[in-house]
Amino acid sequence: MPGLRAPSDYTEEPPRDPALVINSKEPFNAEPRRSDLISSYVTPVEFFYKRNHGPIPVVDDIDKYSVSITGLIGTSKELFMKDIWKLPKYTVTATLQVYSHFLYQVVLVHMALLICL
């Protein structure tokens, strides 16, 4: 992909907030402490959980980087970053959750139900 380089190792990883609890360094997997999560109704961006499955791609030239959109839209589109930056901006409050945490909670609920039976 023009403008994007996929490193073969973890030497070019971006900086992360030192307050994150690191579960795995390579690939990077980290999350905020619970005390940091409850300090604000909205989680600060630097405390978003991080879950990667390989090295972070390096953007060599942001002007050449593009995203292709295909599928149910009918006509395929290619958007460059300059196009994306021109799009309208919206603020959306959302809940993000790592699937494994959700699965863990489901297992706990099922175990609790079995104990109650």
TrEMBL record:
<protein>
    <submittedName>
        <fullName>Sulfite oxidase</fullName>
        <ecNumber>1.8.3.1</ecNumber>
    </submittedName>
</protein>
<dbReference type="InterPro" id="IPR036374">
    <property type="entry name" value="OxRdtase_Mopterin-bd_sf"/>
</dbReference>
<dbReference type="GO" id="GO:0020037">
    <property type="term" value="F:heme binding"/>
</dbReference>
<feature type="domain" description="Oxidoreductase molybdopterin-binding">
    <location>
        <begin position="53"/>
        <end position="98"/>
    </location>
</feature>
<dbReference type="InterPro" id="IPR008335">
    <property type="entry name" value="Mopterin_OxRdtase_euk"/>
</dbReference>
<dbReference type="Pfam" id="PF00174">
    <property type="entry name" value="Oxidored_molyb"/>
</dbReference>
<dbReference type="GO" id="GO:0043546">
    <property type="term" value="F:molybdopterin cofactor binding"/>
</dbReference>
<dbReference type="InterPro" id="IPR000572">
    <property type="entry name" value="OxRdtase_Mopterin-bd_dom"/>
</dbReference>
<dbReference type="GO" id="GO:0008482">
    <property type="term" value="F:sulfite oxidase activity"/>
</dbReference>
<feature type="region of interest" description="Disordered">
    <location>
        <begin position="1"/>
        <end position="25"/>
    </location>
</feature>
<dbReference type="GO" id="GO:0005739">
    <property type="term" value="C:mitochondrion"/>
</dbReference>
<dbReference type="GO" id="GO:0006790">
    <property type="term" value="P:sulfur compound metabolic process"/>
</dbReference>
<keyword id="KW-0560">Oxidoreductase</keyword>
